[in-house]
Amino acid sequence: MRERTIASHFVRAALRGAERQGEDCAPLLRQAGIQPAVLEQARARIAPEQFARLLQLLWESLDDEYLGFGRLRSKRGTFAMMCHAIIHCRTLEKALGRGALFYGLFAEAPTISIHREGDWARLTVDDSTLWDPDHFLLESLLVIWHRLASWLIGQRIRLEEACFSYPEPAHSAEYDLLFPCPRRYTAGSTSLLFHARYLAMPLLQDERTLKQFLQHSPADLLARPDGGDSLTSQIRRLLGRDCASWPALEALARQLHMSPPTLRRHLREEGSSFQELKDQLRRDLAIYHLGRTELPIQDIAEQLGFSEPSAFHRAFKKWTGLTPGAYRAQES
């Protein structure tokens, strides 16, 4: 669902490199339509378009695609040039290999490598050259390369495992959107594991489609999280946008061909619950409607299943740090 929202953690993390470079980030936040109050609320969320705009502004302001986290800058246009260098490769394996070689030409760049492990392939990113306390750039590179590879072959590459060299971070609940697969922490390296059969697939993109792709990438790759095959994402798709017609857990379990206790157990294993999923979807739909439609706030509250507008106001302020009216005002 395109209404997925972005946790305020990622806004704070994205700004860390720019702040380290002495950049005044307040004007950038204003231009992206993000209220400073959002940064002070740990549970606050923003729309994906706001996050994509912030990333683009940071890249422009710093002239650095590494957002201030590298020892040396990666000048704007480097990612686009890499894409042009790989777009005529015959297979995904050739393309990823050439892309890794491309970045290997730059001193102090994070090392990207692709290795086969029997029937599997592992994409590894070595961030030892980075100052990246929140692992923001490292996580971004993993997401970008996974999404880029999927785009090149015209199908989503199913991840089998994501490994991280660091302990489980406080924001790991967001990983369901970024790395929808089993995850392992305090591993020997930071990497993504997928089936090697994808490497032999031909590239389905060309210079024409690349031009369109680069108009919004890589910011759009990061700003539109993809929950993929996880159970929570399947449930979000089944629930849809009409809160009034949301099925009970028992009916949903039947649709998923499992018993209610099994559904509850699987959700617990993914760190969630049915009620939490409904609350998150309600939150994301509220942000979506306030930013994109002319619906009166009272109508939005009713559509989201709130019996009183005041209850919606309280819930929305808890989610974003702002009232619905203040949030809509910043969007206009």
**Separation of the first and last Cα atoms:** 23 Å
CATH topology of the largest domain: 60s Ribosomal Protein L30, Chain: A
What is the C-alpha radius of gyration, as a whole number of Å? 21 Å
List low-pLDDT spans.
none
Characterize the main sheet.
5 strands, mixed
Mean pLDDT: 89
CATH architectural group of the largest domain: 2-Layer Sandwich
Count the DSSP helices.
17
GO molecular function: DNA-binding transcription factor activity; transcription cis-regulatory region binding
GO cellular component, one term: cytosol
Organism: Pseudomonas borbori
Protein name: Transcriptional regulator, AraC family
Tag the structure with descriptive keywords.
single chain; 332 residues; alpha+beta; 60s Ribosomal Protein L30, Chain: A; Arc Repressor Mutant, subunit A; 3 domains; five-stranded mixed sheet; two-stranded antiparallel sheet; 51% helix; globular
Structure description:
There is one protein chain. The chain is α+β, with helices and mostly antiparallel strands and about 325 residues long. The protein folds into three domains: about 5-60, no CATH class; about 80-200, 60s Ribosomal Protein L30, Chain: A, CATH 3.30.1330; about 240-330, Homeodomain-like (Arc Repressor Mutant, subunit A). Helix content is about 50%, strand content about 10%. Strand 5, helix 8 (about 175-180) and strand 6 (about 185) form a beta-alpha-beta unit. The longest helix is centred in the C-terminal third of the chain and has 19 residues, at about 275-290.
